Amino acid sequence: MSRDPAVPLLSARGLRVVFPGRRGAPAARAVDGVDLDVGAGEIVALVGESGCGKTTLARSLLGLVRPTGGAVRFGGAPLAYTGRALKAYRKRAQLVLQDPSGSLNPRHTVYDAVAEGLRIHGYAGDERAAVAEALSRAGLRPPERFFLRYPHELSGGQRQRVVIAGALVLEPELIVADEPVASLDASVRGEILALLLRLRDELGLSALVVTHDLGLAWNIADRVAVMYLGRIVETGPVETVLTAPRHPYTQALLSVLPESGGEPVVLSGEPPDPARVPRGCRFHVRCQALASGAAAAVSDHCRTKDLPVLAGDTSAAAACHLVTGTTAAVGD
């Protein structure tokens, strides 16, 4: 089926996910207004600290968490939430989890782990050939050598490749990878990242890579979206965002990388409770620019004036009152 190349493969507009509070507590705004696109053959990195909402956003994009507001579209068509529609969608968009040990049933062989998706979706072709091809694409060659192995007989990198093969066997158009190398040794991380890049180049596969590591984003992504307290605060081509970050939060995240060459920025305190999002800029209570006086000219706006949702397309923008000439400029 042909598709308009101008239409993003995956698109979210105004996405919100709110979790009710317990015993009368305020509701938690885990995702609080997000626009985000992933184009065909594009790798987008979704970056932020633990608890910023990035995993909830990723799961809502896959239909695993139903959004409270906004809409998700895939290939230009709105995502429907019937069981049948979601089953069809999950064949086209697959999740790769961070911990391969937790993703794989220890009692299932590699063959059964990879074939499981085919069986769920009633695959009518040659199952053995499909499993072999998926394992081979994931870098486990010769694939037949791995068929009867169990997860405990594999290295961490091999287990992650089995998880990726289990996603590839359904021939998806999109992979959402949640911290795909976080549990792996440094020597193996580069191999898995190179694999994802190769899959993009060979298959035209799109990927949304969820990570706390801006260094990983630099190595793999075409575009980056930085998330803080339920909202995207900076976005754009990876070279633009990571070489000339404009949002103080992005600057702080980059400052701790060894290659940054400067003094690390130590943010004060913890991210606020998503049930109690601060008024104004949601980062202002930890902002180093505000604390140092560098943002004195816009300090009132920082504390009282909310910022708009950034566009989800390929344009570069930052939701910061210090930034001018973008959609995030100080309003009237």
TrEMBL record:
Q: PROSITE patterns from the xrefs?
A: ABC_TRANSPORTER_1, ABC_TRANSPORTER_2
Keyword Phosphoprotein among record annotations: no
Q: Which SUPFAM superfamilies match?
A: P-loop containing nucleoside triphosphate hydrolases
Q: Which CDD domains match?
A: ABC_NikE_OppD_transporters (cd03257)
Query: Which keywords appear in this protein's UniProt record, sorted alphabetically?
Result: ATP-binding, Nucleotide-binding, Transport
Using the record's annotation, list all stretches that form the ABC transporter domain: 15-254
The yes or no answer to whether the keyword Lipoprotein is present is: no
Q: In which domain of life is the source organism classified?
A: Bacteria
Q: Name one GO molecular function term.
A: ATP binding
Q: Residue span of the signal peptide, if any?
A: none
The UniProt family comment states: Belongs to the ABC transporter superfamily.
Q: What is this protein called?
A: ABC transporter ATP-binding protein
Q: Which organism is it from?
A: Streptomyces roseicoloratus
Source species taxonomy: Bacteria, Bacillati, Actinomycetota, Actinomycetes, Kitasatosporales
